[in-house]
Amino acid sequence: MNVRPFDKSATSARSVRAVVDTNVFVSGCLGGKHAREIVDGIRQQSFRLVISESLVDELQDVLMRPKFKKEAVFEAAVVEVLDVIRTESDVVAPTLVIKACRDPKDNQILEAAVAGRADVIVTGDGDLLELDPFAGIEIMTPARFLEILSGRRG
């Protein structure tokens, strides 16, 4: 597996390829500050989102759960997030099956990252964070990712 490491000193943030976990998008829809900034960063092309169809499907399933649908503000945020994903991402089709996570559903995040030659995985999931780094791909929290991106812009 030949995956390049996340080069924090690169001059162009746009060259950063990141897989963003479903939990970050959900947090963004619920008003989480860091997660919201990541969604804004995708729209502003501060980095390139890498995602697979299975991750898009999972995100849609989670966002359509009844517990979330009762909030009008949440529904508007969902429409925005899905639009940003559809228009501002590289959709990859993983071919490598990975079984490295305690939670088997998290393996699809690693598979998308490897297939999309991602530099970083952004997540709030402790099980994924424990794997940092994975195959040369850094795994970090939304707050840490934003710190790195803001350092590149400055």
Structure description:
Helix 1 (22-29) crosses helix 2 (33-43) and helix 1 (22-29) packs across helix 5. By secondary structure, the chain is an alpha/beta fold. The chain has one domain: 3-Layer(aba) Sandwich (Rossmann fold). The N and C termini lie far apart (33 Å). It is 49% helix and 12% strand. The relative contact order is 0.23. Helix 7 links the parallel strand 4 (120-122) and strand 5 (138-140). The chain contains 8 helices and 5 strands, in the order E-H-H-E-H-H-H-E-H-E-H-E-H. The longest helix is centred in the middle third of the chain and has 16 residues, at 72-87. It has helices at residues 22-29, 33-43, 53-63, 66-69, 72-87, 107-115, 126-129, 142-153, and strands spanning 17-20, 48-52, 89-92, 120-122, 138-140. Residues 1-6 and 8-13 have low confidence and may be disordered. The protein has a 5-stranded parallel beta sheet with strand order 3-2-1-4-5.
Give a topology summary:
Blueprint: E1 17-20, H1 22-29, H2 33-43, E2 48-52, H3 53-63, H4 66-69, H5 72-87, E3 89-92, H6 107-115, E4 120-122, H7 126-129, E5 138-140, H8 142-153
Parallel strand pairs: 1-2, 1-4, 2-3, 4-5
Helix pairs in contact: 1-2, 1-5
Count of helical stretches: 8
Major beta sheet, strand line-up: 3-2-1-4-5
Structural class, from helix and strand content?
alpha/beta
**Spatial gap, N to C terminus:** 33 Å
**Major β-sheet profile:** 5 strands, parallel
Low-confidence stretches: 1-6, 8-13
Strand content: 5-15%
Overall number of domains: 1
According to DSSP, the number of beta strands is: 5
- CATH fold category name: Rossmann fold
Global morphology:
globular
| CATH level-four homologous superfamily name | 5'-nuclease
Give the H and E element order: EHHEHHHEHEHEH
CATH architecture label: 3-Layer(aba) Sandwich
Helical content (DSSP H or I, runs of 4+): 40-55%
Overall pLDDT level? 84
Q: What is the CATH class name?
A: Alpha Beta
Radius of gyration: 15 Å
